[in-house]
Amino acid sequence: MSLAINNLHARTGQRDILKGLTLEVPSGEVHAIMGPNGSGKSTLAKVLAGHEDYEVTAGTATLDGADILAMEADERSRAGLFLAFQYPIEIPGVSNANFLRAALQARQPEGVELDAVAFYHKMYAKMDILEMNRQFTSRSVNEGFSGGEKKRNEILQLMMLEPKFAVLDETDSGLDIDALKVVAQGVNAMRSPGRGFLVITHYQRLLDYIQPDVVHVLMDGRIVKTGGPDLALKLEAQGYDWLKEEALVTA
After folding, report:
1. Residue 2 in contact with residue 196, Cβ under 8 Å?
2. pLDDT tens-digit map of 114-156
3. What region, left, alpha or beta, does residue 7 occupy, with left being phi > 0 and alpha being psi -120 to 50 degrees?
4. CATH number of the domain encompassing residue 112
5. Neighbour count for residue 118 (Cβ, 10 Å)
6. Closest residue by Cα to residue 167 from 58, 53, 51
7. In what order do the strands lie in the sheet with 66-67?
8. Number of domains in the chain
9. Distance from C-alpha of 136 to C-alpha of 142, rounded to nearest angstrom
10. Which residues constitute the domain of residue 35?
11. How is residue 109 annotated by DSSP?
12. Does residue 168 surpass a pLDDT of 80?
């Protein structure tokens, strides 16, 4: 099982952003994507999630062999794809508990009702891992939350929905070191042979806590380098200029 992307091209408006991106994330592995600003990292996440502002002009993306690009956004979610947003949206008037319960109910077979007691038991257990106050269950989704609280809430959704593959778009953005450790703890608790992760980040510091199996470098809409965890350390130390120089030498 895998999330497989092949020769993916995508644009927004008249601007081409992804220009032949190819990678595969097998179940059970954590892959990280790093790259300079404007390279296409968040665009990739939004394209996979089905954001309406982005047009796929070529290529494929499959989840366990199923064409997710042919699915509506909610169908992709039910198929097992999860996106943690770089900037989580607020949903006024919808409590966290009701939001999660509705999302889980939508995944039940027709005619099967979600067990309310089991739902709350599971939710409270996950909130404890993330050190979230129980009062968050009655608050509207992300409304009035700090940046760190929003990111914890995203990981709570991940832990409750238990997707096959999770795309984390700069989950470390705006987090202090304590919040980063807690969020990483929640992600690491979800690592399993049956689940894959694609972690998009600018910084090595997240990868200190969520250690990847593979690191990809995305530049100008394409994967230009793939390696192990040491690649992220080299990028942290030397930046991206050495990759540009390497590309010139190779050419």
Report:
1. yes
2. 999 999 999 999 999 888 999 999 999 999 888 888 888 988 9
3. left
4. 3.40.50.300
5. 9
6. 51
7. 15-26, 2-12, 55-63, 66-67
8. 1
9. 9
10. 2-250
11. P
12. yes
